[in-house]
Amino acid sequence: MERIVEEQLRIDDGLHTGSIVDVEERTTEKGGFKYIDLHIKFKQGEKEITLKASYPDYLSPTSKLGKLLGRFGIELNPGSTIEIEELKERRCLFQTTTTENKGGIFANVLPDTVKPAVKEETIE
Known about the structure:
Elements: E1 14-27, E2 34-44, E3 47-56, H1 64-71, E4 91-101, E5 104-109, E6 115-116
Antiparallel strand pairs: 1-2, 1-4, 2-3, 4-5, 4-6
């Protein structure tokens, strides 16, 4: 099978505007830790990119996941049920940073920076 070798994609560090295109549950193989992953799609130049922001699957008004939902205006009342997939298709602002380790160079979404995008804040 043939493949075209492409240049390594580098995501610019800083603020981006995108849309949450998927929300999924994930359990790690080691330790069985549960996470909620947001898949955020955005454009850098002409290239469409999707990155993940991960949150521990624990929901309270003060948890990382709870604060995320609160930023999107979802009310959290102890004992109530929340549909996290309500976040799908929401426009958002988020910040990325690049890290490098033995495995390579990676762009990371800073989970605490994901928030709703309002028209004035939209970066294109």
